[in-house]
Fold these 3 entries.
Entry 1:
Amino acid sequence: LTSLSQNTKHLILIGDHKQLRPKVESYHLQVQSGRGYNLNVSLFERLVLSGTPHSTLAVQHRMHPDISSLIKHTYPNLEDHPSVSSRPAVKGVQSRVVFVDHNQPELQESKSS
């Protein structure tokens, strides 16, 4: 935001202040350290916490309620649009939400030189 000119009259940003924070390897640069660097706080979280006016999505149109129920603790006021309840199930899949547990390590991509 510091690169915006003084002539900027209106700015619209689209994002989510409740999604995953940026990953910062150094603990002393994280908000948890209490040192004030807070580099693992996203731009949107900073803006919302500082009192910048914002709007939050009230009705979602993408996820079936079986899936959106997984995020209700993060977005307690988010409602499902009636259209999402009538979406057909994925053929060949027993449930709309499937968790797969495995004990095989993921393959590392080889670095090209």
Entry 2:
Amino acid sequence: MSSDPSAFVDADEAAKMASVLQFLDGLGIPYTNFFHPHADTVESLLQQVEHIAQQHNASIAKNLFIKNKKKGTLFLITAHHATKIELRSFSKEATGASGGNVRFTGEDELQKRLGVRPGSVSPLGLINDEEGKVGIIFDEDMMRFEHILLHPLINSASTMIK
């Protein structure tokens, strides 16, 4: 863990992250950044930031970007990392699709809609959804926490917001 971004973030990643931080600044949302080795999975992210989450009463976000195959609608599900998400039951309730009609989106769709690659998915990516095509669903369990830790469009940093 480092406060020095140069150890983990290249110039392209720094530019992506800067766009998110500028957005948060514009809304007056305070944040704290933590830099760490790339964390492509929730399990690897837990190794990097679980101690921070415990110190700050923060939820570590797990994000699923899904698509209703029939309707083409897109949803970003953001949940506490320990929440088990059953896509079959979730899909009918939240998207109106039967369990077999919801799937994870591909890398091209992630890049097009959220401006991220797999392993960097975050609700902060919605700043890139200029057409407003992505619906967002937050896990209510996250409301038990004082903060949330999210990727700022890159997976070598975590941004904590209140």
Entry 3:
Amino acid sequence: MECNQWMQWRIPCFFLILYFFQLKLYHKSSFGLPISPSSQIDINSTGSLKAKEFLCSLPNNRSERIHNLLRAVNKAALKSIQSPDGDIIDCVPIEQQPAFDHPKLKLEGIKRTPVAKPHSHIDPALRTDRVHQTWSRNESCPVGTVPIRRTSLAEIQRAKSINMFGRKPGGALPIPTRRDLKLGNHEHSIAYVSGKQYFGAKGVMNVWQPRIEGPGEFSLSQMWVLAGSFDADLNTIEAGWQVSPDLYGDSRPRFFIYWTSDAYQQTGCYNLLCSGFVQTSNEIALGASIAPLSFYGGPQYDIRILIWKDSIKGDWWMELEDNTVVGYWPAALFSHLGREATIMEWGGEVVNSQPGGLHTSTQMGSGHFAEEGFGRASYFRNLEFVDEQNDLRPVNGLQITADKSNCYDIKLSFDSNWGSHFYYGGPGRNPKCM
């Protein structure tokens, strides 16, 4: 296919092609060779529609918007790493990351470290096997840079619209008690606490690879830190692992974050796909795949996430495992979370697009129901919250809810090693879930 009416569209096409040419100059592989973005931007697996042909076929305003979006999320890198899973990880100078495209955040500058980390009362020796990110097995980003997963044109094309790229829709509301406010096709199985002032949360979740049935669907396991009203101005901070072929182009579990300050309406995004989260670590790439994975009836692999509020500056920091501080959500992003959280949630979420008029077979967690227990069902364990003295306290009074318990359920438990914990998940469509 050639560019029709080239004279009419020559300006947007020229800039888009120039953009990809610049990426070849900016992005170097770990072997010092140029990494061509064209290898990442075929529209489909057959490669029948190439990037140049596709971009030149777009109306002017759409091609310009895609160009601007790619330029905003793919920053010039000092080093680029080809991950074994196919991702390209760009090592971007910390002060040039997407967060600082926002004038207000740029003015604030970078906070390199939190004032104080909460103190935990749970024995850190209580561990299962640890996961790692695939890209960092044999490579690393230099000090002073942050690793950012490169976004491809194909990933933008899979989104429902340019505006919705990298965002959850309004139906993603994780409402524990107000069923009348649930919107859309998102289904949850969650445990939660409410009724107090919360200044952070911690949890350990095992990692699986749930099967995704069709386009537009995903499955995730995460923590939510919440404040505000669910139907208007909900503030959320979220982190966990996710399988989303639409967003990432494959079925690998990936470490992700999310935020919104208006109930998923206009603000917020996944990872670093908009101005928001400020990354400080050169070790973790948001949106990158994680391994190894839990095995049914075999070894269990989990990740430990801590989110807490800096009592001095008001920012919300995140730590992965026991000592890797990833970065922070600036206080300026939020209204209600500028004070404290009012609900803490842990659990799973799927999108049910009802293919063929039936419930999806997309799995949550391991794809098995909670009653199967350890080694077979997904779990969250060692749940804690941060109090106003910046101490981590074991969660008491945990409540549970499942939107469709015949499809995905949840079961509470307690013991001296794991404290308050629960199993959750399910296969989706089955004889009792149609």
